[in-house]
Amino acid sequence: MSFLKSLFLILGLIFGVFVSPAVAQSEPETLRPLINELAKGKYAETEQQIGALAATGDPAVAPALKALSEGDLFFRKSDGVVFIAEKQGNSYNLKDPLTLEAAGEAGRREVKKIKVNNKLRRVIRSALGSLTLMASDPNVRRLAAVAIFKAKDPEGIEALDVALAAEEDEGVRRVMEQARAAAVLNSDLDETQKLDAVATLSDMGNRDALSLLLSVRASSEGVVRSAASEAITKIEKSIATWDAAQNIWYGVSLGSVLLLAAIGLAITFGVMGVINMAHGEMVMIGAYTTFVVQDVIRTSMPGLFEYSLFIALPLAFLVAGLIGIAIERGVIRWLYGRPLETLLATWGISLILQQAVRSIFGPTNREVGNPDWMSGAFELGQMTITYNRMWIIVFALLVFAGLMLVLKKTPFGLYTRAVTQNRRMAASMGIRTPWIDALTFGLGSGIAGIAGVALSQIDNVSPNLGQGYIIDSFMVVVFGGVGNLWGTLVGAMTLGVVNKFLEPYAGAVLGKIFVLVFIILFIQKRPRGLFALKGRAVEA
Fold first, then answer.
1. Contact status, residue 140 vs residue 126, Cβ threshold 8 Å
2. How far is residue 68's CA from residue 155's CA, in Å, rounded to a whole number?
3. What angle do CA 447, 453, 457 make, to 5 degrees?
4. Hey, which residues does 378 pair with through a beta bridge?
5. Among 349, 437, 458, 521, which is most buried by a count of CB atoms within 10 Å?
6. Distance between CA 158 and CA 14 in Å, rounded?
7. What is the pTM (predicted TM-score) of this model?
8. pLDDT of res. 10
């Protein structure tokens, strides 16, 4: 970069920093003569004029500079007025370089291209960088710094220095410092500045910094190479720690899904000893209830879409719970004490429910939308946390806490625990065990229904939705302890985290096989799971 170009750019940027917003945003008629000056002189004069345009600090000149770099800036021979031109057959369509409005047409002999060379393109790139780095919008400044970081362009160092001197936003300042470090390491600046740049990237500590430092280590020697190696070791340890944290988060997320799917099964399986293979279909019914609610809201009351899940939750609980009670009263109550027959009967019911849903809604996936408050993600360190998963974790814990309150603090919960621990003694004390069975089965089915509301936000809503969770739900219940809600919570979270740590090494399918083998071996030692229920009947 020549001294003259540097002088113009630096003066221009300083001017852009200290002028007031009213001055920085110039009127088009003030900028137009400066742009028209690009049509005069040779490369040296064009370079000076680019610096003068950068000095305005006005982003309105950016389209003209970009067009000049791409060879699309022309001037009209008759009056020297500059336009952005697009070739159209034997003529050119002209646009105003400031307002970008159409300015008519011109023949090929009426206009002439303003020539640029590689040196001028570098000057233009620096000028454009200065304009965006000094923009009033902090997001624009941050994106400009990110672009320089990715390009590792030494030509942007001067512009970054001036921008850093004026930057007040700490987040944007940090990105600018990182961009400057990347550019310095790709330049021929002295060793001291490169060591400072390595330290900056070391503090950055992410994969982008690691990739850049690996290339620096490969191409450098001496103390810079040693510093890069130390920084690489530090970043690799940091990344490994954040990867472990991310896997734990994914595991807790999966565990919350398993908890929602299994918690209802823990009740029905624990209280009645029923192997309910139709439990997954209760989840599916909850998901389709959500679809129906959203479909009605979209067509009739679109303003309520943000509240659609809150409307769907009680309806899904009611629909799935009533279907569960109907199944218990119509089929299950005749099969108590015959677990194999309950398995076969509920498996047949699951097929009937799947086919019924196919007949009503069709076999294809149905779209269930995410409200705005469940959409998007945010960064926590080097972890990415999606809002839908975060709210599902919160929802699963709320369902767990609510169910614990029902079972511990209500008469129905007292009766349920009595029937679970000793059915005959409970019946002799006047508890109507058949109704407790029906209501408990309905409660477990209803909870599966509200689990379907949550799962509709992260999975495809289809007739096969529940089949993907039934086996995992049984594993959670058996591992945690049949009928014990705390065991279900611990089992779901444990299996979720273990699955996510095994997947990178063994794959999703083989990881689940390893977990299944572990559970088989575990129940050989503890047949009642992690937390066994207490009571004469259950211990008999």
1. no
2. 18
3. 140
4. 385
5. 437
6. 11
7. 0.69
8. 39
**Rounded distance between C-alpha atoms, residue 475 and residue 259, angstroms:** 11
Question: To which residue do tokens 């000149």 refer?
Answer: 61
The strand pair at 377-380 and 111-113 is best described as: unpaired
Rounded-to-integer distance, Cα 64 and Cα 83, Å: 8
* Other residues' Cβ atoms within 10 Å of the Cβ of residue 325: 20
CB-CB contact of 317 with 449 (8 Å): yes
For residue 432, give the 3-state DSSP assignment.
Answer: coil
**Nearest-angstrom CA–CA distance, 122 and 145:** 17
**Three-state SS letters, 79-125:** CCCEEEEEEECCEEEEECCCCCCEEEEEECCCEEECCCCHHHHHHHH
Cβ atoms of 244 and 255 within 8 Å: the answer is no
Phi first, then psi: what are they for 338, rounded to 5°? -125, 75
Identify whether the C-beta of residue 179 lies closer than 8 Å to the C-beta of residue 156. Answer: yes
Place of tokens 């089915």: 445
Give me the pLDDT at residue 57, please: 65
Q: Of 412, 415, 471, nearest to 446 (Cα)?
A: 412
Q: Sign (positive/negative) of CA torsion 60, 66, 72, 77?
A: positive
Alpha-carbon torsion (301, 302, 303, 306), positive or negative: positive
Q: What pLDDT score was predicted for residue 514?
A: 81
Short-list 423, 412, 368, CA closest to 533: 423
* C-alpha closest to that of 390 among 404, 403, 402, 373: 373
Kindly give the residue spans of alpha helices, DSSP state H, lying in 220-307.
222-272, 279-300
Q: Is 381 helix (H, G, I), strand (E, B) or coil?
A: coil
Phi, psi of 42 (to 5 degrees): -100, -165
Give the chain's residues under pLDDT 50. 1-25, 535-540
Do 480 and 491 contact (CB within 8 A), yes or no? yes
- Judge contact between 457 and 392, C-beta under 8 A: yes
Q: What sign has the CA pseudo-torsion 290, 293, 299, 303?
A: negative
pLDDT digits (tens, 9 = 90+) for 283-321: 999 999 999 999 999 888 888 888 889 999 999 999 999
Q: Which residue has the tokens 């023949």?
A: 107
Q: Look up residue 439 and give its two tokens.
A: 């209501």
Of 346, 383, 88, nearest to 241 (Cα)? Answer: 383
DSSP labels, 469-537? HHHHHHHHHHHH-TT-HHHHHHHHHHHHHHHHHHHHHH-HHHHHHHHHHHHHHHHHH-TT-SS---SHH
Neighbouring residues of 330: CB distance < 8 A, sequence distance ≥ 6 = none
Handedness of CA 324, 325, 327, 332 (dihedral sign): positive
3-state secondary structure of 527: coil
- Sequence-ordered list of residues with C-beta below 8 angstroms from that of 201, at least 6 positions apart, any chain: 178, 181, 182, 185, 209, 212, 213, 231
Q: Under a CB-based contact definition with an 8 Å cutoff, are residues 324 and 444 in contact?
A: yes
Task: Return the closest-CA partner of residue 65 out of 124, 144, 130.
Answer: 124
Tokens 């940091």 found at: 238
